[in-house]
Amino acid sequence: MEIVILGGGAAGFFAAISAKKYFPQAHVRVFEKTSKFLGKVKISGGGRCNVTNALSNHRLLSEKYPRGEKFLRKAFEQFDTKATIEWFENRGVPLKTYSDLCVFPVSNESQSIIDCLWKEVKTLGVELWTLRAIDKIIPLDNGFEISYKEVNEKVDRVIVTIGGQPKLTGFSWLADLNHNIIPPIPSLFTFNMPKEPVRELMGIVVEEAVVRIEGQKLVGKGPLLVTHWGMSGPAILQLSAWGARILAESNYEFSILVNWLNETKENTLRESLVKTISIHGSKMISNLNPFEIPNRLWLFLLSKNEINPATRWNDLGAKNTNKLVNTLLNDRYVVQGKTTFKEEFVTAGGVDLQEIDVNTMQSKIHPGLFFAGEVMDIDGITGGFNFQSAWTTGYIAGKNVGN
User: Fold this and answer.
1) CATH number for the domain harbouring residue 123
2) Of 164, 297, 150, which Cα lies nearest the Cα of 231?
3) What share of the chain is helix, strand, coil (3-state, %, to 5)?
4) What is the DSSP letter of 292?
5) The whole model's pTM is what?
6) Per-residue pLDDT reduced to its tens digit, 252-274
7) 3-state secondary structure at position 331
8) Do 111 and 30 share a structural domain?
9) 3-class state of residue 312 by DSSP
10) In terms of residue numbers, what domain contains 124?
11) Are 321 and 390 within one domain?
12) Are residues 11 and 153 in the same domain?
């Protein structure tokens, strides 16, 4: 049996390994259009590779996917985060789970994951081919004809793992197979704020912030990073994922409201301020930051509200107190554009999940054609979730490709 996997990323390697494990007599090849394999794995997580997440409850796990939640909840019954952790550790890659449940190799190097996958495909006898960009797939009565580099070749099974594509044209040869393609748009991106002075604070991190899109019900929670172009960090990236379609429709021009004090409510904050004044009333506001936010941010927020930093807490007054409360809990910023991680880009969109059998990852239109990874309309928030969907769908596709 001739099995070809199109795409040499995380999903492609895992699909190839799974296929060769369950169908050892098959001839399994991976075709990668570029000159190197596992490129996204190499650079992910700043070169550390957030290989999965330790969240084990399938319902809670699937809720981390803005697109593909119900589909993946069923898929995780076959291969979940526990299975991923066991798979790598059983092959000599010790993993570490951090407080936010993100899982990284103990080595803190993505090369550990790459070496493991590479060793596995070599041991199993999977063939790896670079610079093989597919031009066309033609369904036959029994199998497929694939075209690349003016070569036409008949194969029995095809697993498509080409990942997300920045443009719809990247899916054209799949659309030619009568598969419905959900138009791709960026899913994980940072917010550009060219007119906001907060950019002067680049480099500061607020560990627990809550960010909302003004006029929407979208909320992001977690660390927030101020950058020289605007804002980033998990809280922002969550918003970009959940709001991918809405924000694209707005042409990435919208406003956000930041609660710098996590989920603190107004009455709690006012009580805290009264306590601060009663204890430290004679101290200057600039010298006493009573909140768990960086001092540079505290001084910036005072300046934003035109509060003299030399003011004593006793002299703050009702008007300034109201301004400070509103800014700490509902600080408004105008977003004008986005910045996408070009190498690590994640997209919403791809092959319509309604046309894929979740139990096998096989096309409902063309038997023998399978899909895995981000080529499908699946994407997760940050935290190892996009890799987990690649491992899960790759495993299932490979397991069933020879049936």
Assistant:
1) 3.50.50.60
2) 297
3) 40, 25, 35
4) S
5) 0.91
6) 999 999 999 999 999 999 999 99
7) strand
8) yes
9) strand
10) 2-186+342-400
11) no
12) yes
